[in-house]
Amino acid sequence: MKGQRFIASLLVLITVLSTTAFNNPLVGRYYRSVGHHAVDSTGQDATLTDTTTKTLATDSIMEADSTTAMMSETDSLLLNLDSLKAIFDREHGIQSPTTSGATQWNDSIAAVEDSISRSRRKSALDAPVMYEAKDSMTFFMDTKNAFLYGQANVKYQNIELTSENIRMNMDSSTVYAMYGLDSIGNKYGTPVFKEGGDEYKSETMSYNFDTKKGFITNIYTAQQEGFLTSEESKKGADGEYYLRGGTYTTCDEEHPHFYIRMSRAKVRPGKNVFSGPAWLVVEDVPLPLAIPFAYFPITSTYSSGFIMPTYGDEFSRGFYLRDGGYYFAISDYMDLKVTGEIFTKGSWGIGTQTTYKKRYKYSGNFYFNYQVTKEGEKNMPDYSVTKNFKVQWSHRTDPKASPNSSFSASVNFATQSYEKKNLSSLYNPTSYSQSTRTSSVSYSHNFTKIGLSMSSSFNISQNMRDSTIALQLPSLSLSLSKFYPFKRKHAVGKERWYEKISLRYTGTLSNSINTKEDRLLKSSLIKDWKNGMKHSIPVSASFNILKYINVTPSLNYSERWYTNKIMQAWDVDKQKVTRDTIYGFNRVFDYNLSLSANTKLYGMYKPSPKVFGKKLQMVRHVFSPSVSFTYAPDFGEDRWGYWKSYTKTDEEGNVSLVRYSPYTGALYGVPSAGKTGSFSFDISNNIEAKIKDRNDSIKKISIIDELGASLSYNMAAKRQPWSNLNTRLRLKWGKATFNMNATFMTYAYEFDQKGNVVVGNRTEWSYGRWGRFQGMSKNLSYTFNNQSFRKFKESIMRLFGHGKDLEDEDIDITEDEDDPNDLETNIDDPNKKPLKEGGSDDGLDADGYMKFQMPWSFSISYGITMAEDRSKDINIKTMRYPYSFTQNLNFSGNLKLSSNWNCNFASGWDFNAKKISMTTVNISRDMHCFNISCGLVFGLFTSYHISLRANASTLTDALKYDKKSSYSSTIQWY
Fold it and tell me: How distant, in Å, are the alpha carbons of 396, 458, 511 from that of 477?
């Protein structure tokens, strides 16, 4: 019996030991499956049963559960072994130990306890490592290595590594990634390493998740506009990369057109690149352009930095460095750029430029440049020092910020010789030849509750030819909107006639001066500046007579306030006029009464379809006549005091009475002398037509937008009561508008007693002639392009009802992209016209080649001025002076020779010199990563400018070549 019990106990012990040895985690296993795995802090692997990717939190919980289950199973096994041992000891009289707990029976059980104790050890990693593979995974637990095959992927925190083959060491937390080879030996599935927003492609890569360091071969990464490659790279723990045999380029081609070869470099992702000795390589050919070190900013954040200067040589000023300085990133709303220039012969300059913007508030920019130009040699007659400056300021407020107020500025001021001394203007004829500069700063505010608006402005006009400045500082205007003072708040019954009376008010205050540039700061505010204030109060009403005639009576009152007046007298001894300025408050007013009547007459005409076609439906003519009467008293009478007179006695004793106004030349003028009682006549015509378009819908077009004339007769005038006849014509055809105004003089020329030609009292009509044409001034401009002639042909044919005769290629069919009924279907459009034989709707011709297209545009502008030339003799028979013509012709265009070639030109014809005027030609070529341009100027300012520079903003100031002509040798200033 004892022997049987002993044998049974031994069998149980062998079974337990076999089970424990089989479940020992130190024994290697082999898996071939597709799934997701997690490596815990001890290097143990837990295979997930489902194929769904788990989150890191879920995987951590599963690892904890598996560890707890393993410990519970081991404790239960040890308790069973303890109970068997206790029975065996009691049967053989062996005393049990006093200590409690499980007893170590063999090495396998000790190994289990060791594995449990190791599982409680703290890990060097802060989070689990997730890994997966599409093909298979192989684990060797004796070496703690895992092999992942087929699109393997490893993730740890914000780091992700993807490669065809990956080897992992679970103890050292290192991975090694390598490409795969296909059947013919080509590489595929190269490693791709992602950390945050940065991505790096390589050939092989080793990485340690614990130290965050790695070694990479043949790395390739994009940093902002640049691309970095290297033969060997080391990754530091702080994210920096150390390269050996690296290149930097902004060309995005797989085989770049150019690159900068760097011996060694340090890359701080998203910040910058520092390099040792580097040289330029173009089309794999090293160029003898080397630098001892290089720095490439690649930051994506708003930051400050240095601005690379441009260099060159100018004959009269020497070698120079220009436009170099520093850029200050002050805030998200404002920046500042400070640049300077220096010449070897002493000239220098400094400039500042700032741009500011706050969304829904305001935006603008400011520019200031100061230059000191030294030309010639010291102590020589041609030595000169010139100081110039230029100020530009643009500002506007957003209407959303304050709907009732606005502030805007447009300032462009420069000293007279600034553009002549500035190198940037030498190759910009438009800037140099600009004769007038205007600037203005204005502020306005509306008081909506009372209907009052206030505006103030500062205006300056600068003539660059003679340095004349016209300045207004300030100009204030107050305006009260129309209101009806007699209208009842609660109207009952019909509107009374006096309730239609309206009243307005406008007041302006101004202070201005017209002087030379060098005298502006020396001028006297009282003696040299003109100032004054004007008040205007119009009172009017509107009534209907006979339903169709609109009658408007009105009273216009104007009052002017001046601070001085100039009295005149004749000095007999000196035989000249003496002027005495008297300062004080002076009030000058005038008024006039007027009554006007107008109406509109409509006429309709149905064109004959046989003559004009079926497209033209109806023609409408609108005739708008108006007549008005104006009365004003004679403000030249002595009782008003606005006009004075003095007696003039010349050397021969002739006595004459001279009339003058003490307010002549004042800011707002002076009331006119003489009574006014004039009738004014005005007529206006408008002709429009309705036609059917291609969709048979009615469309209105304008034939004559306006054709009108005006004439007046002054009953109070003692001579020449008729005014001149003023005519006007306006045509609107499509997007083109034509305006012309012409004046026909009423009274004819005649000879006075001395034989001089004067305007007499007889009208041209009394001689049987039409009014004398005074002349005109007109500018015409039009732009032609590829589609101009086709559209013109189509419009003419459709106007006369021949739209069916148009060929398919003449019709521009445009589809409405926003049509909700335009659904994708395999049914052909029944309205779509068939293509011609050999044609294609994919841009190919009958031979299968791309259709030839060369986009171009040509703009032409013609201006003509016609006026009487009174410097020549008059024709005695017709009593007319000959006319002189002033013409100018300008044209410009653009020609896109190919997708990369572009040409712009501008020129004209000088009718006085009878030759081509100043011509500019600009040719540019886009070479993918570089751009080359050539600017040529022919004529008075002959010059050239060739520029070759990189397209990327990070290298455009470093990789560039500029060649400019020297103005001293090729340009003459007149």
Answer: 20, 12, 12
Q: Does residue 942 contact residue 921 with C-beta atoms inside 8 Å? A: no
The structure tokens 């337990």 sit at 16
**Does 708 have pLDDT greater than 90?**
yes
What pTM was estimated for this model as a whole?
A: 0.59
Alpha-carbon distance of 246 to 869, in angstroms, equals: 77
Coil, strand or helix: which one is 50? coil
Q: DSSP assignment, residue 76?
A: H
* pLDDT, tens only, 829-884: 444 444 444 444 455 666 666 666 778 888 888 888 888 888 888 888 888 889 88
> 168: helix, coil or strand?
strand
Alpha-carbon distances, residue 153 vs 176, 207, 488, 903 (angstroms) = 12, 13, 85, 52
CA distances from 409 to 367, 459, 463, 479, 513 (A): 13, 10, 20, 21, 20
Q: Are 530 and 562 in contact (CB under 8 A)?
A: no
Identify the three-state secondary structure at position 639.
coil
Cα(49)–Cα(123) distance, rounded to whole angstroms? 25
Torsion of CA 122, 125, 127, 130, to 10 degrees: -120
**Residue 27 C-beta-side C-alpha neighbours within 13 Å:** 8
Report pLDDT digits (tens) over 19-70.
Answer: 444 444 333 333 333 344 444 433 344 333 333 333 333 333 333 343 333 3
Q: How many other CB atoms sit within 10 Å of the CB of residue 184? A: 5
Distance of alpha carbon 64 from alpha carbon 66, whole angstroms = 6
298-305 long-range contacts (CB < 8 A, ≥24 apart) are 298/223, 298/224, 298/225, 298/226, 298/270, 298/271, 298/272, 298/273, 298/954, 299/224, 299/270, 299/271, 299/272, 300/224, 300/270, 301/270, 302/329, 302/332, 303/329, 304/328, 304/329
| Terminal-residue alpha carbon distance, the chain | 136
Residue 579 has pLDDT above 70, yes or no: yes
Alpha helices, DSSP H, located in 341-452: 418-421, 423-426, 429-432
Write out the DSSP string of 284-310. Answer: TEEEEEEES-EEEE---S---EEEPPE
Q: CB atoms < 10 A from the CB of 300, how many?
A: 10
- pLDDT at residue 791 greater than cutoff 70: no
Cα torsion angle, 493, 497, 500, 503, sign? negative
Helical ranges in 293-433 per DSSP H: 418-421, 423-426, 429-432
Contacts of 665 (CB under 8 A, 6+ apart): 530, 566
pLDDT at position 770: 84
State how far the alpha carbon of 763 is from the alpha carbons of 746, 747, 769, in Å.
5, 4, 9
Work out the average pLDDT over 601-610: 87
How big is the CA angle at 655 (ends 653 and 656), to the nearest 5 degrees? Answer: 150
Token duo for residue 811: 């019709």
From CA 587, how far away is CA 668, in angstroms rounded? Answer: 12
Using alpha carbons, list the distances in angstroms from residue 954 to 251, 480, 694.
Answer: 12, 56, 53
Report whether 623 contacts 603 (CB < 8 A): yes
391-407 tens-digit pLDDT: 999 999 988 888 888 99
CB 723 within 8 A of CB 711: yes
**CA-CA distance, 39 to 124, in Å (whole number)?**
13
The 10s digit of each residue's pLDDT in 214-226 is 898 888 888 777 8
CA dihedral 426, 431, 433, 434 (to 10 degrees): -160
890: β partners: 861, 908
- Cα angle vertex 382, ends 380, 388, to 5°? 120
Nearest to 786 by CA among 858, 688, 848, 728: 858
